[in-house]
Amino acid sequence: xxxxxSDAANVVIDRTARYPDAPPSPTEEYRDATAKRASRTSxxxxxxxxxxxxxxxxxxxxxxxxxxxxxxxRAIELTSQLTLVREDETIPLITASGRTLFEDLRSMVDDxxxxxxxxxxxxxxxADCKEVGAxxxxxxxxxxxSEEIPTVDAGEACxxxxxAPLPQGxxxxxMVEDSxxxxxxxxxxxxxxxxxxxxxxxxxxxxxVALRAGTVLTPASVSLAATMGHANIRVVRxxxxxxxxxxxxxxxxxxxxxxxxxxxxxxxxxxxxxEKMGGTPxxxxxxxxxxxxxxETLDEAAASCDxxxxxxxxxxxxxxxxxxxxxxxxxxxxxxxxxxxxxxxLFGSWRGKPIFGLPGNPVSSHIVFTVxxxxxxxxxxxxxxxxxxxLANRVRVEMxxxxxxxxxxxxxxxxxxxxxxxxxxGSTRTHQGSGNIHSMVAHNGLSLLPPDSDCQEGxxxxxxxxx
Length: 467
Ligand code: AMP
Ligand code: MG
Description:
The protein is α/β, with parallel strands linked by helices. The chain is built from 9 helices and 33 strands. Helix 3 packs across helix 8 and helix 5 runs parallel beside helix 8. It is elongated, with a radius of gyration of 32 Å.
């Protein structure tokens, strides 16, 4: 019989009894037990209750709202109940690509700032150029950046460069290709076009909001922000996301491997994903399967980070410490999602900070991040739907091979997607095991086979094309 002290409550809980070989769902057991509220007792300020199986449950932090075995859609809904705290920081515009705007950005200028030419050529009066072969007197040059611009009167033309101010009196531009210069005269061989004038404020007027709060800045929007005159901008502070690997068998790459250990990989993959989604990954030292170490690390992560990702230890095993500690001392909103791979994730909060307990299998943790954590991160940061960073695009793919689905679960098999003509074709290559991270490297997509459905060769299915 193994007994573990619970720090928080000083209550001794018999783990072996709670998790026999064929354990009941802890949630069902919890629900049954808590349905009979009269049987609750209070010990050392911790509420406990006896389950039907005669076990003692701590109730003080156990979520009353935990759901088990939810659909992916429901899981996404539930994650939206706990969001990141949205704070701002002001940064130089040059570092702002990929960041989320905290506030609306107004233009400090008109764009264009003044009427100017869209072409190198001649600023003229359209009325002077009705006939091909008109000869006009050259009165000077308007260059981009020049301050003194000649006026164009009847019968005159001013040489003009792209972006240079339109001289007073001119109302059309003739392209340089449509002209011949002889001495101080120019012969107009083509049309004079008002359409080659870019009018003041035709793109943007002063004080217009051109970039909305929540926009994730692309290179083009950074350029627009500069056009509007902003050297520094207020963006959403990057969330610090703790990434914690849990497992006795894990050894960081580069260190000596004992017979029974493996190189740890998930914190590397997850940190890269956090970064891709616009967060700052905070990798913690790997922790052994120990409740005390886990509690200490989770406390430290909750105190220093905005959210927590763990990998490993969320299944039903005796050594799945993340699930156990969350169940007893945290607040779980859901556990297990009806997807394959990646079934056992949990979500909730630890000391007030959102926490995702991701599965240990490398493919599973990667996929659960992609379909669950990534959308949560971007909506939680207040990013506008259309501009959000994403890890995949949803597409329709014609499969070249059959795929086996999963009973009751959304099945995300690794597939290779390629374009052929106007179609996207999908195929599978490597072994699909959830421990085989190479399968994620060898493929660039995931099938989205609905629960209980297989796909035959030639079928067109929904899929995620990974970016
Ligand atoms: P667990 O969820 O802890 O039972 O782990 C499931 C499988 O994933 C086991 O084979 C673990 O060795 C493996 N695993 C767990 N965590 C990691 C990690 N951080 N890196 C690589 N493999 C892991
Ligand atoms: Mg483990």
